[in-house]
């Protein structure tokens, strides 16, 4: 059942601290900073990585590809449905299928194609014994527990964490200080997600009330917040049926800015104080100049008040983990807007939980 929640989606959003603890259980040694993923015991450090996925899982794959590149492993994410046009995997490539259900037709067929071309394959999945788990050479379970709501929530968070763990475990010791910071922030992650869940509902209800009826909703972010901007928009459009688009913030002035008016709220995602975060502030100024209402979702490391009509704060944490907290905030916003509009949240029109045709 829904354990007292009005929808499975809300229940699953609130299950994230537990899901993340399960995902991390036995894989993280806080003292030594070691990460061990027993599922993939014999997997060697890949020379090159391709990730294939659809929808929300593709956004996790984009995050994963960025993380691999950061530790020096060339990696690229592909939409599984477009994998036919990807460069063929070279020797010692690892092709990772990121798929919650393990049954998505496009992802299975991309994985089969990769295998056919001689690549080693790994399924990162939630469902034990799923087709992807059975067909791939290796499997890593994200351990979210069953997800009933059509809109993926807790499984996205667990995918981000699983990919992070995978990278630390197959490419250890690249930057020990970085690893230590990551391990520490993963250790605190469930608590930080809980605090996002505990704090925000009243603010969000008010915000949603104010913003509903807008022409469209935009989500912008850079670096690790770019896939989260895409995911924020996907979740929003999926369950509210309102027009929403996510962009890497730098792309705004290459087209989408033409759509920005006083009637298109912009959600800007800013964590840490790196170049990506600072440049996002510049992009916020551009949308402010067009009169768009700006909601900044931030850890508060940079001073954003004068850039924002509304600031939603998430706890300050490591740069790799902050975007995950931002995403939880965006899940709540999408949920509240859909509830406000009386949408059928757990089964949005035209959508299915598992897409088994190409
Ligand atoms: C969106 C959503 C879908 C899935 C996609 C892939 O909320 O759930 O976009 O992410 O259909 O599904 P899996 O991960 O099962 O391959």
From TrEMBL:
The active site is at residue 353. Residues 36-177, 207-348 form the SIS domain. Its EC number is 2.6.1.16. One of its GO terms (molecular function) is glutamine-fructose-6-phosphate transaminase (isomerizing) activity. Coiled coil: none annotated. GO terms for biological process: carbohydrate metabolic process. It catalyses: D-fructose 6-phosphate + L-glutamine = D-glucosamine 6-phosphate + L-glutamate. It is found in: Cytoplasm. Keywords: Aminotransferase, Cytoplasm, Glutamine amidotransferase, Repeat, Transferase. GO terms for cellular component: cytoplasm. It is an enzyme of class 2 (transferase). Homodimer. Catalyzes the first step in hexosamine metabolism, converting fructose-6P into glucosamine-6P using glutamine as a nitrogen source. This is Glutamine--fructose-6-phosphate aminotransferase [isomerizing]. It comes from Haloferax namakaokahaiae. The gene is glmS. The chain holds residues 246 to 603 of 603 of the full protein.
């Amino acid at each position: 059942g829904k354990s007292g929640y009005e929808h499975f989606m809300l229940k699953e959003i609130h299950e994230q601290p537990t899901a993340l603890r399960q995902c991390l259980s036995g894989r993280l040694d806080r003292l030594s900073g070691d990460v061990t993923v027993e599922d993939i015991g014999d997997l060697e450090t890949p020379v090159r990585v391709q990730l294939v996925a659809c929808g929300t899982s593709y956004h996790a794959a984009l995050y994963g590809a960025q993380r691999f590149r950061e530790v020096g492993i060339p990696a690229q994410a592909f939409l599984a449905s477009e994998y036919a046009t990807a460069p063929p995997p070279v020797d010692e490539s690892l092709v990772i299928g990121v798929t919650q259900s393990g049954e998505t037709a496009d992802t299975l067929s991309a994985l089969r194609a990769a295998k056919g071309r001689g690549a080693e394959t790994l399924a990162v999945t939630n469902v034990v014994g799923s087709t992807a788990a059975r067909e791939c050479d290796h499997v890593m379970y994200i351990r979210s527990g069953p997800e009933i709501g059509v809109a993926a929530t807790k499984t996205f968070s667990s995918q981000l964490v699983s990919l992070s763990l995978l990278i630390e475990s197959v490419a250890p010791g690249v930057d020990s200080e970085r690893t230590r910071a990551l391990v520490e922030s993963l250790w605190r992650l469930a608590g930080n997600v809980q605090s996002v869940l505990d704090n925000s509902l009243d603010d969000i209800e008010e915000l949603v009330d104010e913003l509903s009826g807008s022409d469209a909703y935009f989500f912008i972010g850079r670096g690790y917040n770019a896939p989260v901007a895409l995911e924020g928009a996907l979740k929003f459009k999926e369950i509210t049926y309102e027009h929403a688009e996510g962009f890497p913030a730098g792309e705004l002035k290459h087209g989408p800015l033409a759509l920005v008016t006083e009637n298109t709220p912009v959600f800007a995602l800013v964590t840490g104080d790196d170049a990506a975060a600072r440049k996002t502030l510049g992009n916020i100024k551009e949308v402010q100049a067009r009169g768009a209402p700006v909601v900044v979702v931030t850890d508060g490391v940079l001073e954003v008040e004068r850039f924002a009509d509304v600031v939603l704060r998430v706890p300050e944490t490591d740069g790799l983990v902050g975007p995950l907290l931002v995403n939880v905030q965006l899940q709540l916003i999408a949920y509240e807007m859909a509830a406000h509009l009386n949408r059928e949240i757990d089964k949005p029109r035209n959508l299915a939980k598992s897409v088994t045709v190409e």
